[in-house]
Amino acid sequence: xxxxxxxxxxxxxxxxxxxxxxxxxxxxxxxxxxxxxxxxxxxxxxxxxxxxxxxxxxxxxxxxxxxxxxxxxxxxxxxxxxxxxxxxxxxxxxxxxxxxxxxxxxxxxxxxxxxxxxxxxxxxxxxxxxxxxxxxxxxxxxxxxxxxxxxxxxxxxxxxxxxxxxxxxxxxxxxxxxxxxxxxxxxxxxxxxxxxxxxxxxxxxxxxxxxxxxxxxxxxxxxxxxxxxxxxxxxxxxxxxxxxxxxxxxxxxxxxxxxxxxxxxxxxxxxxxxxxxxxxxxxxxxxxxxxxxxxxxxxxxxxxxxxxxxxxxxxxxxxxxxxxxxxxxxxxxxxxxxxxxxxxxxxxxxxxxxxxxxxxxxxxxxxxxxxxxxxxxxxxxxxxxxxxxxxxxxxxxxxxxxxxxxxxxxxxxxxxxxxxxxxxxxxxxxxxxxxxxxxxxxxxxxxxxxxxxxxxxxxxxxxxxxxxxxxxxxxxxxxxxxxxxxxxxxxxxxxxxxxxxxxxxxxxxxxxxxxxxxxxxxxxxxxxxxxxxxxxxxxxxxxxxxxx
Amino acid sequence: xxxxxxxxxxxxxxxxxxxxxxxxxxxxxxxxxxxxxxxxxxxxxxxxxxxxxxxxxxxxxxxxxxxxxxxxxxxxxxxxxxxxxxxxxxxxxxxxxxxxxxxxxxxxxxxxxxxxxxxxxxxxxxxxxxxxxxxxxxxxxxxxxxxxxxxxxxxxxxxxxxxxxxxxxxxxxxxxxxxxxxxxxxxxxxxxxxxxxxxxxxxxxxxxxxxxxxxxxxxxxxxxxxxxxxxxxxxxxxxxxxxxxxxxxxxxxxxxxxxxxxxxxxxxxx
Lengths: 548, 270
Known about the structure:
Strand order of the largest sheet of chain A: 1-2
Radius of gyration of chain A: 26 Å
Structural class of chain A: mainly alpha
Low-confidence stretches of chain B: none
Distance between the termini of chain B: 47 Å
Strand order of the largest sheet of chain B: 6-7-8-3-9-10
Helix content of chain A: over 70%
Order of helices and strands of chain A: HHEEHHHHHHHHHHHHHHHHEEHHHHHHH
Mean pLDDT of chain B: 90
Largest sheet of chain A: 2 strands, antiparallel
CATH topology of the largest domain in chain A: ABC transporter involved in vitamin B12 uptake, BtuC
Shape of chain B: globular
Helix content of chain B: 40-55%
Largest sheet of chain B: 6 strands, mixed
Low-confidence stretches of chain A: none
Order of helices and strands of chain B: EEEHEEHEHHHHEHEHEEHH
Number of strands of chain A: 4
Shape of chain A: globular
Structural class of chain B: alpha/beta
CATH class of the largest domain in chain A: Mainly Alpha
Oligomer: heterodimer
Number of domains of chain A: 2
């Protein structure tokens, strides 16, 4: 058993860590930038919220081993206060010694903000928050998670309020919510209370219901047909009208998310199902895009020889090229596993990018200039559905592609082939001894994964009309991998959620884009420590009827 | 000639000869055991037969045909299945999924079948599922089909491993220490179960086993390996009396002590 330390040490240690985190966040400029952004109109700015969140985490964490109410609360208070004191010490130090030449963000305004106006306030705020956090531990787990969900979603609404208002304004609905719910920036005070209480209540009721259902047999857990059908109709209606409701900017964001969902579903086959960690996955995306460019753009060398193709003619070619590339990558890695396989795929991804960039292939790929003038996608004889000004139309194509991909991925997962992939993931040798042909099974996974990514690339090319090698860097591969991991490895709804969170949210929070990678990293570390199975853990299918 | 025959099978790892010119001939529908001290090369020999290792010399005949050099999946398709000394289930898949994977070679659905799921594929899936449930019943795992394999009790995991191997429709089943880590009651249950496998399903069983009570009680024929070579073969009784076997297990001094002991007993009786 782990040795439990005394509550005094525990709280001081927690406080020091928390204070250190706040100082770090301040020095990199996060707190300063976030201080300009209201979350609750006139009451709370994001920077303050960040500090309070750290105090809260410190108090909550430090009190985890204390069962006695008095020491638990004392631990919380002390931990928060220590964090506050450390911040104060930093402020005092900063005011005495000029560290600005090194840390450009360390301005007098920042110091004032960190000290909550005057130094004593920081300690008091820390102590109170720590106390609240420790007291929070007395609540039942279900209530705790419901409250945190409510608060978190309220904060998200607050941060996206200007965009929500923009969308509502498009539809003439803004005046109904402005004031009592949303302010131009942030939620209003009443909105904050309403939103967090309502969401917490919903989340609480949901979790109680789910717990109640866990004891029932599977058959009773399945929602009845009518409910399912109604939900489907609603979902279809929402998706059909979504671009009109959202407006061009947000439709564009959704298109972006959709392309990543496509790639995520493909990579999920390779990584999530078959267990082969591929970090060069962007290569297939690039291939899809370049094939589209070469065939359809008047600059493309094939188009110059044969006359320009249209999107629909080029699509199957891109598909086939991606599949072949998937198999070609698969062949050399058939015999290697684990880390070694990852390194090879990493190399493959870079090779494709460097080839596209190379002078040697410049006549075909356009070198660093890439390929421009890729025509928009047209519905023959009717109208074009892509191009810079038509994200709302492209949405439907992306949606269809995603739905097909979801269908295919789901079907594959619950089939003989999907089971073979999972068996290979679990134990390659045993899978082979069970009669699974490893060569076929692995190549099929690579080919299927590559196909999804290639299709995504074709739409990407037509959407942007210009492609450059630098659009296909390693970071894209890592992004896709991260969204699978955060969403829930192997889980299809998880991939979609992961794409919304890791691609959609950063797009909406552009004003903080400088901290994007930092937050990304922090989220990944947090997920790996606290919820390694992802937001939507993949649960095995219940194939057998109860009692069989 | 039996169902499985090895001729002069030799496997070397660098300078070490792990399996040295081993010849066995396993009669059809037999329960055949391979025993020997730790490191005698039993599991390596198994691995040669199931295709994980390719022996440097010799030949392996299954139903009269050489299976030397075939890949493990091809060998499995011919009807050779196995379990493992340290349980190797697909631990994040459910019990029934494990068994379904075992049926993989006998199913046909390809990629298009999987995506479009025509009636033939639906039927195949339903039949396989039913067969999987039957197999779980047969090994005594009824009602546990939806359990994730790693959550099953140890004895159940052993049974599931056998069910998965049976799903392969094997003609011959290699069990690598099936009673390892079991208490006497579980061991007795497993022994009965192995008999049922042979009697009810007509499968030839090859065992690696350390528990001598199990081996002597269940086997019809035993081969003894020591330092990679076969030092004896025969019925349980013959093996028990074979001085070379006793020596391999107890060492020379042990043998002398045992002989001295029996000598004394004889003298006392006289």
